[in-house]
Amino acid sequence: MTARTRPFNFSAGPAMLPEEVLREAAAEMLDWHGSGMGVMEMSHRGREFIEIYETAERNLRALLAVPPEFRILFMQGGGLGENAIVPMNLSRGGLVDVIVTGAWSKKSLGEAGRYANACAAASNEASGFTTLPAPASWELREGASYLHLCSNETIHGVEFQTLPDLAALGSSAPLVVDCSSHVLSRSIDWSRVGLAFAGAQKNIGPAGLTIVFVREDLLGHALPICPTAFDYTVVAEHGSMFNTPPTYGIYIAGLVFQHVLRQGGVAEMERRAIERSQLLYRYLDDNGGFYRNPVAADARSRMNVPFFLADASHNEAFLAGAREAGLLQLKGHKSVGGMRASLYNAMPLAGVQTLVEYMKDFVRRHG
Ligand SMILES: *Cc1c(COP(=O)(O)O)cnc(C)c1O
């Protein structure tokens, strides 16, 4: 363990990275492994970068036990880009069902509607996005091209603890999962997934890089309007090098993958995520009503914990004191208000311990 030299950063994304990774990248900035070049200055087709790329892909495949029938694409455009790229590749202009559980899946529904007949198969909006609609209640349309869900709603702090088995629900549609904000914090049951995508800026690396896992049998059906650079089939055929991929982002992601492997892999990330989030939720549920988290217990996210001060007039003082205590970026999303603590893989347990101590101290001073 390196000594703590920086504040704890609770940003929802772009988010904190492991300090060890930042130091490695800094040390290699001017000269990667004696090549005389920094990674940003290398051809994406040169042997040095190909080695970086192949190592990153191999390690990611190992970390998430991605089966061979899935291709891993290193793309650009972020999660919102994928909200368009997925329907352009998978919808065939037909029916797209979406499970609406928060701001992100609601955006996915809106964007898919530009390319396909998109419809909410279930929604928790009436609960203020604080619950998960039971799969048995989902209205799945026959012949849908796919079903979209967001497995962790970053803004509302709602997380699926298991992915639905669509076949058991009588649907043959492939499942599309936006796992941007909890990828690498838990395993993925690939037998239930057709495609998964993740913007990198939460648990993987710099914003811009977007990772897509797509089952091979879903390739080959892009709409004619799909830009060639966003056609999964073309991207897959070119090993993510149809156009210049986000090379520096892939390099940092590769360092993060190696770091996670050294720390014990995704199982260890999950153990830590449970430990961190339980510590915070226990305090939120048992602090005499000064703070509260509104999300139903079985829907609570291990990664993003929104919380509210009962007296919102203390919000500014809370945030200012937190900054002084070395606890950064705790302000909630503007659509929700209050606070949000994002507890991604790079957040040490000590960060949450420090946060809870600060929250207790704040109650003593303002309660
Ligand atoms: C952050 C995030 C995205 C990414 O959106 P950008 O287009 O990269 O800004 C998508 N979905 C979820 C669930 C996210 O948390």
- The portion of residues forming beta strands comes to 15-25%
In the CATH hierarchy, what is the architecture of the largest domain at level 2? 3-Layer(aba) Sandwich
Secondary structural class: alpha/beta
Judging from the principal axes of the Cα atoms, what is the shape? globular
Widest sheet: strand ordering: 2-10-9-8-5-3-4
Q: What are the secondary-structure elements, in order, as H or E?
A: EHHEHEHEEEEEEEHHHEEHEEH
Helical proportion?
25-40%
Name the hetero compounds present: pyridoxal-5'-phosphate
Q: Tell me the Rg in angstroms.
A: 21 Å
List the uncertain runs.
Answer: none
Span between termini: 36 Å
Pathway: Cofactor biosynthesis; pyridoxine 5'-phosphate biosynthesis; pyridoxine 5'-phosphate from D-erythrose 4-phosphate: step 3/5; Amino-acid biosynthesis; L-serine biosynthesis; L-serine from 3-phospho-D-glycerate: step 2/3
Binding site for L-glutamate: 45
Keywords: Amino-acid biosynthesis, Aminotransferase, Cytoplasm, Pyridoxal phosphate, Pyridoxine biosynthesis, Serine biosynthesis, Transferase
Domain Aminotransferase class V: 8-355
